[in-house]
Amino acid sequence: MARCQNPYTWRVRIDPHTHSSCSDGTDTPAQLVAAAARAGLDVVGLTDHDTTAGWAEAAAAVDRAGVALLRGTEISCAADGVTLHLLSYLHRPDDPGLLAAFERARDSRATRAHKMVERLSDDFPITWHDVLSQAEGSVTVGRPHIADALVAAGAFPDRSAAFAGPLSAQSPYYVHHWALDPVEACTLVRAAGGVPVAAHPRAGRRQRRLVPEETFAAMAEAGLAALEVYHRDHDAAERAAALALAQRLGLGASGSSDYHGAGKPNRLGENLMPETLLRQVLAEGALDLVVPPGWEGRRGERMEKASQPLEGGRV
Ligand SMILES: [Zn+2]
Predict the structure, then answer these.
(1) Mean pLDDT across the stretch 49-58?
(2) How far is the CA of 155 from the centre of ligand 1 (A)?
C-alpha cells in the first residue's frame, strides 16, 4: 500500500478545487456533483476559471447527490510574467470588482486562444472552428480546448502530450494573456467577501519560474488564507517547500484534486482540504455551503463512527 503523504487526518472528505464544462472540465456542473458523491466526498468545491457560471446548476444538483457544494472560482493571476492561480471561495458572485476582472480575463484568454490557433494552424491540421466545437458550452475558450482539437486531429495522443508540446509556455506557439496581479486579486476577493487560497504555488512542472516568497508575503498581508500544498503537480520536495512557506507566513495548507473530468488523470478526492481550513473559509466567507437535507446530521454520525483518526489526503 502506498504511504500517505499528507499528515492531516480526515473525517470529512473535502475536495475544494474542481472544474466543470463551464470552464475547461468535461463534466457539466450537475455531473460533477454526482461524480463527487460517487467518489465518496462530503464536500466538493466547484472552481471554474474566472467564472461563477456553474454555481446555480451545481447547487441544484446538491439535494439529489447528497454532497455539499463549496462555491468558488479559480482566478488567473500573473506577477512579472509568472502565472499564479488564486482560488476564491464563497465570494459574492455579483461583486462589481471581481466581475470586471473575470470579464477582462475571459476576453484576454479568448483573444489569446485565437492567436495561438492562428500560429498552430500553420503546422497542425486545426482551425478555430475545431477549437470552438471542443469548447461547446464553455464560458472560457482556453488551451485545454486547443489541446482537445489537436488530439481530435490525431496530432497528439492526449491533452497532456499537447500541453507538454506546442501548448507549453516555452513553445513558439504560446501567446501571453492579461492577468490580474495576485496581491490585487487577494484584495479584490476579500472585498467581495471571498476567501483566497493560492493554487499549486510551487508546481515547477507547470512553469520554470515560480512566484517568489515576497509576493506570497504581500498576498498574505492582503488577506491570503492558505496555500494549496497537496496537489498532484507538486512532487514531494515541492510539497515540503509549499508547506514550509505556508508555515513561515502563518497560512493554512490546503489540498485538492484539481479534477477536470475526462482527458486528465486527476481523480476526485485524490488530495483533500483539512476540515479546520474549511471551517475558517466558512467563518470568513460571505456565502454558506450549499448542503443537502440532513447533511450536517450524517456528517456528525460519520465523525462519531471514526473512532480512530482516518489517515488520508491521498487515496
Ligand atoms: Zn484548477
Answers:
(1) 95
(2) 25
Rounded to the nearest whole angstrom, what is the distance from the C-alpha of residue 68 to the centroid of ligand 1?
A: 19
Question: Ligand 1 centroid vs 47 CA: distance in angstroms?
Answer: 7
pLDDT of residue 7: 45
The total of structural domains in the chain comes to 1
In a domain? residue 275: yes
Sign of the dihedral defined by the CA atoms of residues 79, 82, 83, 89, in that order: negative
d(CA 297, CA 8): 23
185: helix, coil or strand?
Answer: helix
Q: Give CA 245 to chain center in angstroms.
A: 20
pLDDT-based confidence at residue 24 (cuts at 50, 70, 90): confident
CA 302 to centroid of ligand 1, rounded, Å = 29
Of the two residues 302 and 77, the one the predictor is more confident about is 77
Q: Per the domain annotation, does 31 fall within a domain? A: yes
Q: Evaluate if residue 266 carries a pLDDT over 90.
A: yes
Distance 198 CA to ligand 1 centre (A): 11
CATH, residue 270:
3.20.20.140
**How far is the C-alpha of 17 from the C-alpha of 272, rounded, in Å?**
9
Q: How many A from CA of 123 to the centre of ligand 1?
A: 29
47 close to 16: Cβ distance less than 8 angstroms: yes
CA–centroid distance, 231 to ligand 1, in Å, is 10
Instruction: Please report whether residue 158 resides in a domain.
Output: no
* Minimum mean pLDDT range among 2-11, 26-35, 161-170: 2-11
- In the block, which residue shows the cell 467518489? 39
What is the span of the domain harbouring residue 20?
A: 2-94+194-306
State in Å: Cα 260 to ligand 1 middle: 8
pLDDT, tens digit (0-9, with 9 covering 90-100), for 110-144: 799 999 999 999 999 999 999 999 988 776 788 98
